[in-house]
Amino acid sequence: MSSVTASLAPADLPQDATGSSRIDHLVMLNLVEPGSRVLDVGCGDGSLLALLRDRRGVDGRGIELSRQGVNACLAHGLPVIQGDADTDLAAYPDDAFDYVILSQTIQATRQPKVVLEHLLRIGRHAIVSFPNFGHWRVRSELLLRGRMPVTDTLPDPWYETPNIHHCTIRDFVGLCRLVGARIERASALDASGHPMRFALPWWVWNLVGTQGVFLLRRQ
Amino acid sequence: MATPLLKSGPEPASQADEPTSPVARFEVDAPLAMDAGVDLAPWQIAYQTAGTLNAERSNAVLVCHALTGDQHFANTHPVTGKDGWWERLIGPGKPVDTDRYFVICANVVGSCMGTTGPASINPATGRAYGLDFPLVTIRDMVRGQAMLLDRLGIKDLFLCIGGSMGGMQVLQWAASYPERVFAAMPIATGARHSAQNIAFHEVGRQAILADPNWHGGRYLDVGTRPAKGLGVARMGAHITYLSEPALHRKFGRRLQDRDAPTFSFDADFQIESYLRHQGITFVERFDANAYLYLTRAMDYFDLAADHGGVLANAFRDTRTRFCIMSFTSDWLFPTADSRAIVHALNAAAAPVAFVEVESDKGHDAFLLDEPAMISAAKGFIAAAARERGL
């Protein structure tokens, strides 16, 4: 396993004036250079994009599947298109953005590998976060109860979950190797969404991290 | 409604030269340079406005009308007596808020509601132009609108908005005068007319040309009108503006004022009666030659072809913010057409939003009460207004 370890101490987190921002959004905010061009794939109501624009002066764009989400973005003046990662990324030119963000979405795509390759092609950097299927709660649901896990980060039962391609942090590191992505920074978030305080080996993150957050770039 | 078969009706109230709206007249020193290679002069453009231009002249909105639309977007129509055609979207407190913006809509070049077109008097002959009028393009329409804005002292637009053929004009505006368009909303449109759309237009034109009352386009000289041909053209086109689910919901197989089929070619079905009515009412307000010219203008529209075959090149270095909108049941300008525009704008790194509105009302949805369209437009326009400091 690589020796990349947690690089985001909680002290790095910006103070959130409104107290309304999601902690994982604040983690991502910290990974983005001010004034850069960002595409947020699966941007929801645009709260991360708005945060990036207001705090980092980012020129942000978004892709969102739900019309409600798109409408919310429009009302905030965010240029967001209705579409999805599987079908719309192919149309973007190479190196169109400094960062392409895929937050909590890769596990819901039909072709995660193809999507990741597009992220690395479209952006100079890719930022990917996902729920860690290797978390001990998930493992224990399977091991002890013999059932598909239902947790805070994965709340849907198996028959109606949009998450069709679960992976563990270790799996994702493997995919990064496969597609030739260099891991620039990585961290695991704990149950409260905070980055883990200490540099820990991968296997520990894979056991206790509820989410993985990766900053990647093309090799 | 029991409607008779189409027949030659009374002359329409002539709006072609003396419309019921303001007109900007351009003399021989200010010709309209047309793509057909003709400098049209003298010429005129009829328009309507709503709202007030602010002191900074920064709140102007140009509304671009569709194929058979006109400048009467927010006032009672002088011929039909109907409400303005886009009052659902434009008016006090509406997304295009006439309390805040100065809204302009001009009849397009080649039409018949007061802007110079084939039904206008050709000063060289003293008769209607007829087919002597040069072929019109979408770009010609936009050039004409730009000259009107110059005349009105409006340097740039806060917003340029339109649906269908109006959306084509919006795209052309963004391509021809990017520095004059702050925000653009092309709705239910495409960057080119598809083969299927050209095919439908050709059927409509052939219906007009086949009407003996068309007289080689000189019908106004002999006091006839190709009402049957134009009516059939409208009937065919009207089907393309709807959708199968909408037709089924509105009419189904229900019979018109009868309990059983008559075993004749009378309008037994409600849908037949409805289409005949559409044809008849259209003939009362529209000129057949103008229909030929405007359908041709749409057919010729291919924005990518004008830019080396790459649509993104039409929007290179644009600073305009775009909001593209399509409707799920629109098969005339399907969502794929809008997506092609979105992809081109993405490739040009333009700020673009895109909404696909769920609707079973077909292409005409952009003119109808679609709350999802209204709310998306409201959000986009309000945010753009904030960015412009309005």
From TrEMBL, chain A:
Pfam family, one: MetW
Sections of the chain in a coiled coil: none
Organism: Methylobacterium terricola
Name of the featured protein: Methionine biosynthesis protein MetW
Domain of life: Bacteria
SUPFAM superfamilies in alphabetical order: S-adenosyl-L-methionine-dependent methyltransferases
Annotated Gene3D superfamilies: Vaccinia Virus protein VP39
Automatic annotation (TrEMBL), chain B:
SUPFAM superfamilies: alpha/beta-Hydrolases
Primary role: Transfers an acetyl group from acetyl-CoA to L-homoserine, forming acetyl-L-homoserine.
Record-listed E.C. numbers: 2.3.1.31
InterPro entries cross-referenced by the UniProt entry: AB_hydrolase_1, AB_hydrolase_fold, HAT_MetX-like
All residue ranges annotated as the AB hydrolase-1 domain in the record: 59-368
Disordered: annotated span: 1-22
Species classification: Bacteria, Pseudomonadati, Pseudomonadota, Alphaproteobacteria, Hyphomicrobiales
Residues engaged in binding substrate: R234, D364
Record: active site: S164, D330, H363
Organism for this UniProt entry: Methylobacterium terricola
GO BP terms in the entry: homoserine metabolic process; methionine biosynthetic process
Catalytic activity: L-homoserine + acetyl-CoA = O-acetyl-L-homoserine + CoA
Name under which the protein is recorded: Homoserine O-acetyltransferase
Gene name linked to the record: metXA
PANTHER family: HOMOSERINE O-ACETYLTRANSFERASE
UniProt subcellular location: Cytoplasm
Gene Ontology MF, one: homoserine O-acetyltransferase activity
Pfam family, one: Abhydrolase_1
Membrane-crossing residue ranges in chain numbering: none
UniProt keywords, alphabetically: Acyltransferase, Amino-acid biosynthesis, Cytoplasm, Methionine biosynthesis, Transferase
Subunit note: Homodimer.
A single cellular component GO annotation: cytoplasm
Pathway: Amino-acid biosynthesis; L-methionine biosynthesis via de novo pathway; O-acetyl-L-homoserine from L-homoserine: step 1/1
Family: Belongs to the AB hydrolase superfamily. MetX family.
